[in-house]
Each structure stands twice: as C-alpha cells, then as structure tokens.
C-alpha cells in the first residue's frame, strides 16, 4: 500500500489541507514534511492513522471542528489499483469510497495485512514515545512487536501465543504459594472432608428402642393418611352431585326452547353477509336501469334539436391552410408603423453624425467606407498615437536616468572599520555544527538529569526524600518473593486464628450441653454412680463392725440411694449415652484445640520473623520507617531504576564533556572579541552572526553602488539615441495620417476630426445596415397583407358572404360559420354514442338481476316448503332463525356431554337416576360434615408426623455410618482428581519447557537474515561506532545487546538516548524489510526522531529513510531546517520536500 495523497478536510487546526505525494518515482519514495513548531506535523501523522483505523470516541483533535464534523480523506495505491477513501466519525458508514458508498471496516483491515493500530504505531509511526516504548519491547523480545521481529523469520510467531496459553493453563492448575489454583482448592476440600469425618464418626447406642419408636410412629401416620383419603373421596363425590344439579336444570331449559324447530335444517351453509351483499346488488342494478331510461329519453330530445350544416365543414381546412399567412398579417399590423418610424429616425441620426464630422448631408454617401478602408485608417491612427506615446516615454525615461545619476553621486556608501572578519571566524570554529552538538549535549544531559530526578522523586515515602540513589540491599524479584511469603504467612495465621476460635466455640457448646444433661435432665453420670456405690460399701463395712440400729439405717439409706440412682440411670439410658459421647467429644475437641494453638504459635513466630526481615531490608536501604511488605517490591524496583538513572547520567555527562568544553571556549573567545559580559553560547554566536552579517552587508552595498553607477551612465547614452529615433518616427506617422484621410473621404472630412477615434464612421456604417434592413421589412409586410386579404375574399365569395375589405372581420365571419358547423357535428356524434352506452348499461343491469334471482333460488333450496324463502328478505329471516336454532342445539349437546362426563355415566337417563332423591341443601350439609371430619384427621396426622420426625431425628443422631461412608467416598474421588491435576500440570509444564527450547533453537537457526539487516543498518546509523548485534537469554525471553568497535557489549538501556533511538530505528528498518519480503509494504512515518542525532548520524539516518523509500514509502516530519538541508544534500533527487 502507498499513500498517494492525504487530505485533512476538517481535522485539528486544518481545514482543507492536502498533501500530494504524487506517483512513486524510480529514484525513491522518500518525503520530508517541514514546518515550524505547532504547524501541524504530529496532526498530519495522527490524521493518517485515523484514515486507516477511524476516530476514537474522545478525540483531542476536535478543538477547532466539532468531533461530529471531522473528516479525513486520502488516495491509496493498492497494488495496481488506486482507490480513494473518506473517514468520518460516525458509527455506521464511517468509511466510504470515492462514490460515497459505505464500506465495511474489514475492507481496510485486509489492506493493512492484519496490523492493528497499536502495532502500526509502534512499528511504522514513530515519535519520541512510540520509538522508545516499542523499541524496548523489541530489544527484550517482549510484546507483539517483539514477537514479530524475533520470531517472524522463523515462521513461529503464532506458537508464542500458543505457549502463553499452555503456561496460563499450567498456572491455573498449580502455582507455588497460590491459593486459587485447582490443586489448592482440591487440597482444601480434602482437608474439610477429613475434619467432617472425624466429627461424625461416633459410636451408636439405644438403637433398638429408637427404631421401635420410629416404626410405631410410621404405622400410626399411615393409618391416618388412609382415613383422610377415604374422607376426601367421599367429599369429592358429594361435591360432584351438587355441581351436577344446576347442569341438569340447564339441559331441561334448552330442551324446552327447541320445541317446534324440527323443520329447520341441521346444517347451514349460507353466509349471512352474502345475503346482505345480494340485497345491495339488487338495489343497485334496479337503480341503474331507472337512471338509464331517464337519460335515454333526454338524449333523444336533445338529438332532434340539433341543426346541422355539413357544407361549411370544408372552411375548417381552408382557414387552417391560411394560418401562417394570417400570422404574418397580424405581425405586420403590430410592427409596420413602428418600422417606418425607425427608418426615419435612423436616417436623421446618420445626417447628424455627418454634420458632427464637418460634412454636408449631400456628402453622406461619401462617408460610408468599406471594412478594409476602415481597418487601414484605424491602423494609421494607432501608429500615430503609439509614435507620440513612445516619444513622450523615451524623453521621460532619459530625464529619470539623469536624476538617478545625480542622486548616486551624492549617496556614496560608508564602510565599517571593524578589524575582525567575523564570517571567517565562525567558519574557523565550526559554530553551526558546535551549536547543534551543544544543544544535543545539553538536551541529553538535561533529559538524563530529569530522569534521575524523577526516579529519586518516585522514592519519596511520607516526608522522607532522597538526594542520591540509595543502596539496594535486595533484588526486586527477591523482594517480590519476600512480599509473597509475608502475604501467605498472614493468610495462614488468619486461618489458624479462625480455626482456634471454631474449636473454642465447639468446646463451650459441648460443655454447656454436658452441664445441662447433668443439672437439668436428671442424668447421673458414671462418676456420681461410682461415688454412691463406694459410700454404700463403706457404710456396709461399718455396719458389720458395729451392728447397731443406726448403722443399719445408714446402710439402708445408702443402699436406697444406689437403687434410686440405678433406676434413674436405667430410665435415662438414652441421655446417659449422649452424655458419655459428649464427654468423649469434649476430650477430643480440647486435644484439637491444643494442636491448633501450637500451630498458631509457630505461624505467629514465622510471620514475626518475615516482618523483621522486611524491616531489616528497609533499614539497610536507608528508610527511616519500614514499608508495608506489599509496597516493598515496587519501591525496590524504583530504587533500582534510580541507580540505573544515576549511572546513565554519569555516562551522558562523560559522552558530551568534549562538546561542552569546546562550547565554553568558543563563548569566551567571542565574549572577549565582542566585549560581551557572561554570555551564553547561543547569545555569543548570535552576536558574532549579526556582526558577520553587518560586514557582509557593507561589502555588498559598496559593490552594488559602483555597479549601479556604471549601469546608469551606460543607460543614459543608450536613451539619448532612442529619443532621437522616436521623434523621427513621430514625424513620419503624422504625414501618412494626413495623406490617408484626404484620399479616403475626398476632402469632406479634416484629419483632426478623426484623431480621437473612428467611432462616428463605425456608427454611420452600422446605421446604414439597419436602414437597409428596415426598408426590406416594410416591403415584405405590405406584400403579406395584400395576399392574405385576397385569399379571404375568394372564400367569402364561395360561401355567399357579402363583400368585405377588412381582412380581420372577414376572417372572423368565416371562422364563425366553420365553428358552428363543427360544433353541431360533434354534438350529434356525442349524443349518439351516449345513447348507445346507456342501452348497453341497461342490458347489463338486467342480466345481473337475473343472476341474483338464480342465486336466491339456489340458496333457498335447503329449506322445506313450510319456511317462507321467496324473496331475499324472507331468505335472510329464515337464515337468522336457523342460526339461532343451531346455536341452541349445540349448547344443549355440550350441556348433556358435560353432565354425563361430570357424573361418569353413559346417557342422560343414567344421570337423572344418579341425581334422583338429592337436593342442593342435603348435599351441602353432607359436604360440610365431611370437611369437619377431614380437619380432625389432618390435626391428628400433623401430630403423628411430628412424632415420626422426632423418632427419625433421634435415630439419625445415634447412627452416622452411612454419612461416614458417603464422605469417605467423596474424599477418595477428590484424591483421584488431585492425582489427575498433578499429572496434567507436569505434562503442561514439561511440554512448555521443551517447546520453548525447541523454538529457541529453531529461532537461532532461522533469524540470521533479519538480525544481519538490523546489524548493518545500526552500523550505518552510528557511522561504525557499533559493529555487531546479538541476543542473550533473559529468563523465558531474550534481550538484544550491541557490541561497539572496541568489543564492549551494551544493552539498549545503557546507551545514550540518541544511540538508543538509532538502534530502535535500525530494528524498525529491518522489520520493514522483513514485511516487504513477505509482500507487505506500508507508509513509514517518523515525527522528528532525529532530534538527538548529531549531523553525521542525521545524514546516515536520511540514507536509511531513502533506502526504505526504495522498498516502500518513507515520510519524515520535522521543524528543523538543517534536517531538510541534510536530507537534500545526502539524497539529492531521491527526496521530496513538502512545506506546511
């Protein structure tokens, strides 16, 4: 693709601005667009991008024209075709062709070879931002452009995206210290299942009793359900009978209405609307017949009243034949008197002109000369006038030259007494080159200083600022690892704290339940029962020793207490089992709490150690206060950037030290010679340039004065000869003029009368032509009038009209006779045709009436003779009655079916039998009673269901075997899935590493051509300062390095800004060659990226742009005049300069 022309119709500050790049030249397609600051160079490049990719929703270039009014158009050469496109800021139809037809967006995408706007900017539209940003990506093999350049030659650019997807899939399965991967989620689910299994795995007790209680509750519940179903069925039967009684009444009512309608048909195929239409048609045709008969009677009367004269009809053609002659006659009546008056006026005017020329009326014909004589006289008059003007002009020119000679004698220039030749001085020191180099050096140092200052400012924390780059005690990747470790430890500590709180809550709940069973439930624990038995045994031993009544009573009381405790324990066996289980669970919960507490203490210790490590790093970096661990990696990266910026500043200062020293020396020399006080280099050079310009101006003024003096003296001698020749020519012209006038007009006119012009003679000649024309017109009009009157009189004689000499009156009489005859014939024919049409209409209406009568008879055939259908009105009434009867029959049939379906019987008789003896009142009472019985059963069923639920709950509380088995099965499934995730992760990770290694080897083998092209271009741009390019591995990608002439290797970030830009330009040029080799050439734009280049490297950069122009199209935008001069110097005719 090539840009033929670009038109910024309404964009930015431009309205109707057009760049015409013309057809591609054999010498190259390199263009330089030059203009001052803010002239619109960047606007031009942005306009081109919008032509290709459209307008953004918020456009910063809509400051002069509203966004909705923006418009950009251009002509593109695509292969052998030339196409014109227009881009508008609208949703639909934003891209149109030369005919205004809207085009789809993919029409432009196909031309661009798949490059999106971001890729085009970074690769082919370069400014200070995109050349640096895209260049960094290229140099480190990152981003889409990096992949394109590092992989395109190997044909594997698509594989990089595939490998990124593989890496992403592997990371989703498992990633170190990540908590959201599939492996981590499955691991947490397995731990949760282990915990749940431990909580549910308890021994069963009192199982048989609880099972018997459940079976009894289920049996009672089933009995109540069966009873409720029977009551509901009985109530449904009663409700059915109650609903059927009104339906039977409706059947009886409809049957009574249909008595006496048996003769009406069972089916009606007549549309009532058709009958209405037939009635309307019958009325319409009857009215047509009446109207036609009335019109026929009137037409017969009018026909008999017509008076016909066919003998006058030939007058029509005769008068038509005279129409042209009559038109000339009427024209003569209008114009004849006027033409005679004009003829007299023109004759009088010619006589007046002859008197003005000094001639008598008798000599008028002598003044009428032919065109040749007129031309000869005009030529002689013009020659006389030119000779006079020439003589006067040459005299005036001679006088002016003499005045100029006297003025030059009195205006001799004053020369300067300056001792220093400032022009030679500036050339000796190379001031122009030094100025450019000095500006570049100052800019580079200032840019490096700004970068360094910005990097120091980025290190500011609260009120602590840094004047120098601090020490970096830890690498940024290590800082990120430390921050991740602190985050994971904080998360683990929080989870352990939550687990400890859950254990505390569980212990408290179990303790409260045990206390409740012991204190409020009457349950005697094993310890209390053992204590009672021990007391009984003690009292028995004492009784055996003393054998007293008191000892016996004490033993009896103790024995009774043991028996009572045994009874209570027997009656509360179920609660006792729960108590024993709770006590075992409590012991286990306390053990788990102890283990969690130990883990929590260890986690706290690890977390404190990690925080201490963060604080140590911050202290070593010179921070007064420790940073938040999450903020540490970002600050460490900023510190690394500050160290790099400091190093870059030192290198820039060293690179430009010689230029700055030479600039200081030149400034001091100029200051001493020109007596300046502490000037800058720019001020000193400007002063020297002004003095050099003043000296040059004085020299040129002296040389110009001497040259002008010589020129004026020579011109005066030439002018004197010219004046004499002009006077001689004037005398000859006057003599010829007098002789010509005398011979042409035979003495009737003096020569002086025509010196001011020949207008009177031309007027006489023109008036004579008009006078002759008026004479011819008058004669023709008179002849036409006579002929017209003679022909009209012949027609009047033929038709016996009285004699008449007035042609208009005679024509009017003849026309009246012809018109009357023609009108009578036309009226006769009109009435005859009207009568014929009326007869036809009357016959057609009668035929339609006959058809209607036949249709009525056909429709009435379905009715028996007992029903009146002779007329349309009778038939319509019969149809309406039949429709009503059919509707009632249908309703009766539906009612019968509904009744028999309701009662589930076969016919109406069986339905009557079912309803016999039932009334609405008795059925309503029965339904109410059944409803109350159902409510009682529902209440009892609710109680039985609650009891059954309680029994089921009690049984489930005892046994958890099935739940344990289910949870164990789930745990086994999760463990299998964990194995599958681990296997899949290993497959992806190992496959990714093997594929990366294969791609790297393949890339090393196949990309040498592109790397050599970039290497050669970079060597050209740096004038041999850098001789080789290579790549080194950097993690999972590669980094570009350059070797200078001394063999030292540098990365792009270690180069000066100008050299770095030259490297990035070389990479773009190599990429452009790569695209061109693949058949894709696109316009290559650069916006003042040579600004940091010195003059020699600028020349080399212009050669590179010209080389790109040989392959495709290169366009450079600049506000530096010296860049334009260098481009023309280096490229010659291969570059075209456009000005804004």
TrEMBL record:
<feature type="domain" description="YhaN AAA">
    <location>
        <begin position="1"/>
        <end position="206"/>
    </location>
</feature>
<feature type="coiled-coil region">
    <location>
        <begin position="807"/>
        <end position="862"/>
    </location>
</feature>
<protein>
    <recommendedName>
        <fullName>YhaN AAA domain-containing protein</fullName>
    </recommendedName>
</protein>
<feature type="coiled-coil region">
    <location>
        <begin position="289"/>
        <end position="339"/>
    </location>
</feature>
<dbReference type="InterPro" id="IPR038734">
    <property type="entry name" value="YhaN_AAA"/>
</dbReference>
<dbReference type="Pfam" id="PF13514">
    <property type="entry name" value="AAA_27"/>
</dbReference>
<keyword id="KW-0175">Coiled coil</keyword>
<dbReference type="InterPro" id="IPR027417">
    <property type="entry name" value="P-loop_NTPase"/>
</dbReference>
<feature type="coiled-coil region">
    <location>
        <begin position="479"/>
        <end position="506"/>
    </location>
</feature>
């Amino acid at each position: 693709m090539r840009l033929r022309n670009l038109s910024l119709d309404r964009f930015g500050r431009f309205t109707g601005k057009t760049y015409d790049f013309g057809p591609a030249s054999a010498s190259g397609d390199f263009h330089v667009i030059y203009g001052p600051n803010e002239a619109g160079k960047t606007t031009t490049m942005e306009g081109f991008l919008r032509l290709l990719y459209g307008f953004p929703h918020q456009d910063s270039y809509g400051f002069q024209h509203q966004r909705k009014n923006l418009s950009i158009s251009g002509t593109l050469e695509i292969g052998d075709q030339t196409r014109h496109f227009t881009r508008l800021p609208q949703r639909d139809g934003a891209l149109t062709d030369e005919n205004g037809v809207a085009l789809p967006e993919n029409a432009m995408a196909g031309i661009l070879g798949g490059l999106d706007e971001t890729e085009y900017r970074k690769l082919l539209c370069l400014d200070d931002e995109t050349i640096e940003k895209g260049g960094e990506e290229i140099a480190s093999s990152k981003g889409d452009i990096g992949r394109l350049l590092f992989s395109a030659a190997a044909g594997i650019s698509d594989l990089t995206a595939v490998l990124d997807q593989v890496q992403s899939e592997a990371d989703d399965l498992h990633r170190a210290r990540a908590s959201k991967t599939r492996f981590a989620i499955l691991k947490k689910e397995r731990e949760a299942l282990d915990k749940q299994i431990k909580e549910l795995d308890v021994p069963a007790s009192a199982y048989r009793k609880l099972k018997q209680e459940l079976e009894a509750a289920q049996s009672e519940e089933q009995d109540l359900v069966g009873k409720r179903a029977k009551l509901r069925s009985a109530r449904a039967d009663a409700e059915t009978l109650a609903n059927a009684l009104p339906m039977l009444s409706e059947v009886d009512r409809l049957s009574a209405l249909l008595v006496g309608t048996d003769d009406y048909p069972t089916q009606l195929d007549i549309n009532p609307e058709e009958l209405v239409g037939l009635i309307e048609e019958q009325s319409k045709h009857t009215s047509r017949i009446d109207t036609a008969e009335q019109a026929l009677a009137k037409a017969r009367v009018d026909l008999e009243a017509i008076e016909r004269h066919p003998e006058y009809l030939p007058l029509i053609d005769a008068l038509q034949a005279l129409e042209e002659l009559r038109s000339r006659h009427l024209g003569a009546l209008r114009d004849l008197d006027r033409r005679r008056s004009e003829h007299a006026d023109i004759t009088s005017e010619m006589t007046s002109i002859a008197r003005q020329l000094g001639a008598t009326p008798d000599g008028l014909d002598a003044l009428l000369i032919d065109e040749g004589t007129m031309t000869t006289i005009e030529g002689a008059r013009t020659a006389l006038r030119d000779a006079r003007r020439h003589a006067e002009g040459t005299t005036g020119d001679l006088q002016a030259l003499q005045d100029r000679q006297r003025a030059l004698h009195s205006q001799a220039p004053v020369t300067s007494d300056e001792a220093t030749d400032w022009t030679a001085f500036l050339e000796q020191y190379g001031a122009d080159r030094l100025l450019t180099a000095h500006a570049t050096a100052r800019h580079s140092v200032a840019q490096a200083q700004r970068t360094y200052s910005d990097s120091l400012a980025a290190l500011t924390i609260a009120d602590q600022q840094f004047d120098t780059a601090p020490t970096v005690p830890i690498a940024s990747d290590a800082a990120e690892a430390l921050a991740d470790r602190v985050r994971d430890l904080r998360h683990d500590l929080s989870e352990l704290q939550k687990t400890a709180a859950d254990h505390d809550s569980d212990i408290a709940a179990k303790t409260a339940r045990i206390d409740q069973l012991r204190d409020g439930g009457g349950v005697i624990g094993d310890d209390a029962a053992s204590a009672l038995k021990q007391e009984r045994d003690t009292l028995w031993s004492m009784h055996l020793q003393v054998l007293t009544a008191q000892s016996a009573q004490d033993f009896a009381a103790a024995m009774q207490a043991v028996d009572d405790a045994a009874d209570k324990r027997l009656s509360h066996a179920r609660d006792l089992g729960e108590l024993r289980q709770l006590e075992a669970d409590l012991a286990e919960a306390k053990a788990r709490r102890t283990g969690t507490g130990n883990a929590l203490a260890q986690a706290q210790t690890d977390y404190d150690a990690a925080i201490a490590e963060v604080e140590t790093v911050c202290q070593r970096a010179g921070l007064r206060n420790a940073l938040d661990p999450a903020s540490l990696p970002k600050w460490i990266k900023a510190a690394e950037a500050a160290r790099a910026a400091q190093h870059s500043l030192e290198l820039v200062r060293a690179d430009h030290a010689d230029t700055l020293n030479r600039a200081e020396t030149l400034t001091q020399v100029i200051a001493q010679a020109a007596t300046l006080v502490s000037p800058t280099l720019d001020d000193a050079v400007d002063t020297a340039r002004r003095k050099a310009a003043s000296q040059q101006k004085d020299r040129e003024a002296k040389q110009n004065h001497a040259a002008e003096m010589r020129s004026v003296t020579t011109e005066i001698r030439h002018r004197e000869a010219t004046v004499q020749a002009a006077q001689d020519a004037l005398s000859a012209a006057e003599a010829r003029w007098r002789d010509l006038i005398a011979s042409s007009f035979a003495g009737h006119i003096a020569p002086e009368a025509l010196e001011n012009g020949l207008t009177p003679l031309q007027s006489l000649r023109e008036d004579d032509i008009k006078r002759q024309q008026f004479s011819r017109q008058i004669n023709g009009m008179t002849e036409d009038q006579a002929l017209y009157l003679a022909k009209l009189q012949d027609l009047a004689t033929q038709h016996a009209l009285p004699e008449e000499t007035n042609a208009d009156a005679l024509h009017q009489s003849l026309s009246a006779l012809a018109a009357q005859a023609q009108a009578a014939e036309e009226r006769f024919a009109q009435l005859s045709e009207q009568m014929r049409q009326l007869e036809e209409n009357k016959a057609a209406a009668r035929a339609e009436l006959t058809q209607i009568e036949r249709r009525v008879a056909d429709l009435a055939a379905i009715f028996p003779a007992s029903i009146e259908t002779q007329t349309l009105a009778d038939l319509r009434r019969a149809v309406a009655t039949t429709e009503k009867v059919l509707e009632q029959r249908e309703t009766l049939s539906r009612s019968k079916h509904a009744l028999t379906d309701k009662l589930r019987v076969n016919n109406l008789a069986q339905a009557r039998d079912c309803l016999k003896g039932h009334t609405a009142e008795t059925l309503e009472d029965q339904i109410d009673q059944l409803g109350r019985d159902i409510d009682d059963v529902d209440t009892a069923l609710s109680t039985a269901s609650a009891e059954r639920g309680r029994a089921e709950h009690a049984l489930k509380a005892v046994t958890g075997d099935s739940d344990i088995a289910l949870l164990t099965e789930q745990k086994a499934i999760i463990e299998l899935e964990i194995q599958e995730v681990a296997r899949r992760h290993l497959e992806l990770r190992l496959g990714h590493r093997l594929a990366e290694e294969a791609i790297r080897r393949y890339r090393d083998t196949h990309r040498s051509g592109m790397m050599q092209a970039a290497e050669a271009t970079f060597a050209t741009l740096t004038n041999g300062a850098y001789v080789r390019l290579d790549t080194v591995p950097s993690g999972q990608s590669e980094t570009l390095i350059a070797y200078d002439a001394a063999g030292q290797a540098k990365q792009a970030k270690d180069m000066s800004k100008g050299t770095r830009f030259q490297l990035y330009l070389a990479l773009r040029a190599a990429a452009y060659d790569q695209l061109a080799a693949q058949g894709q050439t696109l316009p290559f734009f650069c916006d003042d990226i040579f600004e940091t280049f010195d003059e020699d490297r600028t020349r080399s950069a212009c050669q590179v742009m010209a080389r790109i122009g040989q392959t495709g199209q290169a366009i450079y935008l600049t506000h530096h005049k010296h860049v334009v001069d260098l481009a023309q110097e280096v490229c010659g005719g291969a570059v075209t300069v456009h000005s804004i």
